[in-house]
Fold this sequence. Notes:
This protein has 136 residues and is mainly alpha-helical.
Amino acid sequence: MTHANSWALPATDTDEHGPCDDDCGIRDVQDRLGDRWSVLVIVELAKGVRRFGALKSVIPGISQRMLTVTTKRLIRDGLVERTVYPTIPPQTDYRLTPMGESFAQAVAALADWSRQHKEAVAVARLRFDLDHPGEL
């Protein structure tokens, strides 16, 4: 039996759709993975609780505005928790939620896969480019 998406598992009796034929949430996850800064913030927070300034200093090239926008999106998605302490000046720190920790593990697995297959992907691309000049 062939499927349009060869990676997809066949539907079961209780699941008339494939694993992601309808809105299974993958687009939301892709939004975070495809965002230039979100993964970097997640990776950094996987190392432990960080204050805003510490995050900004360890993520090269991120502006204060982009870090603010990114952390707000991650908080909205339930991946990051923000705590404000009533000090003068106020201190704020960020940490991963349990769901954020789970996401960080998935990101780490993807990074591991990327490292393991980096050379093979480069070879495959070169082979394709040589066999199909000017196609891409």
